[in-house]
Every structure is written in structure tokens, then in C-alpha cells.
Specification:
By secondary structure, this protein is of the alpha/beta class. It folds into two domains: 117 residues, Rossmann fold (3-Layer(aba) Sandwich), CATH 3.40.50.2300; 96 residues, Arc Repressor Mutant, subunit A, CATH 1.10.10. A hairpin with a 3-residue loop joins strand 11 and strand 12. The protein is globular and about 55 Å long.
């Protein structure tokens, strides 16, 4: 049975998530503090963590950092903090996704399913196929309509990283430092330019992207379907 650790200091939210997740077949651990969350995670090894940021004692960001010290378990932040800076801080600390309170339970459940589905790592050298293009990571080759698509080295570096982390919300800072180097943090115009080029080459409608998605002020996500 899939085990989910729910971490929130609000009793009503813990109860609501406990009921909704258990009725869908998940095994649930509940924590109201950061300290309790870290203890339960170490004892029961959850398959996914739903985490509030505003916790008494050890706060949510420190819980993320603590977990990332030893596990790659998917972490979805569920928080009333809606500022872009809070979202970016959580993603940079190691969170996989961010949902703002109040939230739709159906949307949250969909994100839980997607995170669990995508947590199994891709093979070292997969080929990812969508309805519109195919990406061969081993041979660094992209095809669309049976024709090869030329990507620049920088465009390929972005596509390669996004595809290997499909479904995960990648912060602008992390993507800049991954592609351009550790001294790059604020050059978000680089990302806008290169994502625009990637979309022109791969998206069926670049103005309404289906695969390479932007969450304004936060980061980017690749969805394969």
C-alpha cells in the first residue's frame, strides 16, 4: 500500500486529507510539527509527503532540507503562503510541487497521483514519445513529423533536463544554474528566450504550450502527455 505522510498543524486539514486519501486506498501518517514529520519519515519511509510550510518548531523549509539529506521522496508543499518567493524557496530547497491553500481536493489528488507515477526514475537513456514529437536522450536526437529537429546546445541542455524531470516544477534559479552554471541566478530572460525557441520547434501551438509549461515568476514544468 502506498504510504503518504501528511504534515500540517491545522487539525481540520489533517483530518480532511486523512479521510480523502484513505478512502482512495492510501496508507496515511499524520504529523502536526516538523520534528514529528522527520521522525515519522525516518520510521515509516513514506512514498510521498504533503507538507505545510508554516509549522511550529522546525518549519517546512527545514523539513524539506532534512528529508533531502537522505531521501528523494516526492514532496508536495500545501501552503497558505502564495508569494512567488515562498514557492521558489520551497522548490529550491527540494520540493517537487506547490499547491496553494485553499485548494481543490480533486486537483491535489491528481497531483499526488502524478507525482507517484513519475517518481520512478527514467532509464538512463530513454526515448520519450509524445503525440507531437520524440526525444532520444541517448543519441541527443529530436524528431517531429518523421523529420529531425535541430536544437542548439543550450536548447538541448534545457530539454534534456526538463524531460529527465518530467512532471516536476523546476525553479528558474535551479534551471539557470544547471544549464549555465552556479553563478547564474537572475538571468530569467535567458530562459524566456530559449523556451520560446523550443516551443516554436516542438509545440503544436507555441502560444498555448502543451508540453513545456511556465508557472510565471516560479519556474517551468515538462508534461509528456
Amino acid at each position: 500500500m502506498t504510504r503518504i505522510l501528511v504534515v500540517d498543524d491545522e487539525t481540520q486539514i489533517r483530518k480532511a486529507l486523512d479521510v480523502n486519501l484513505r478512502t482512495r486506498g492510501y496508507d496515511i501518517d499524520l504529523a502536526s510539527t516538523g520534528e514529528e514529520a522527520l521522525r515519522l519519515a525516518a520510521a515509516h519511509l513514506p512514498d510521498l509527503v504533503l507538507l505545510d510550510l508554516g509549522l511550529p518548531g522546525v518549519d517546512g523549509l527545514d523539513v524539506i532540507r532534512g528529508l533531502r539529506g537522505w531521501t528523494a521522496v516526492p514532496i508536495i508543499v500545501v501552503s497558505a503562503r502564495f508569494a512567488d518567493a515562498d514557492k521558489v524557496a520551497a522548490l529550491d530547497a527540494g520540493a517537487d510541487d506547490y499547491v496553494t491553500k485553499p485548494f481543490s481536493i480533486n486537483e491535489l489528488l491528481a497531483r499526488v497521483r502524478a507525482s507517484l507515477r513519475r517518481h520512478n526514475p527514467l532509464p538512463d537513456e530513454p526515448t520519450v514519445t509524445t503525440a507531437d514529437f520524440s526525444i532520444d536522450l541517448q543519441n541527443q536526437r529530436v524528431t517531429r513529423d518523421d523529420a529531425e529537429v535541430h536544437l542548439t546546445p543550450t536548447e538541448w541542455a534545457i530539454v534534456n533536463y526538463m524531460v529527465r524531470h518530467a512532471g516536476r516544477l523546476i525553479s528558474q534559479r535551479l534551471l539557470l544554474q544547471t544549464v549555465w552554471g552556479p553563478t547564474y541566478e537572475r538571468e530569467t530572460n535567458y530562459l524566456r528566450v530559449h523556451f520560446a525557441a523550443i516551443r516554436r520547434k516542438l509545440e503544436p501551438d507555441p502560444a498555448q504550450p502543451r508540453y513545456f509549461l511556465t508557472e510565471p515568476g516560479i519556474g517551468y514544468r515538462f508534461e509528456a502527455s
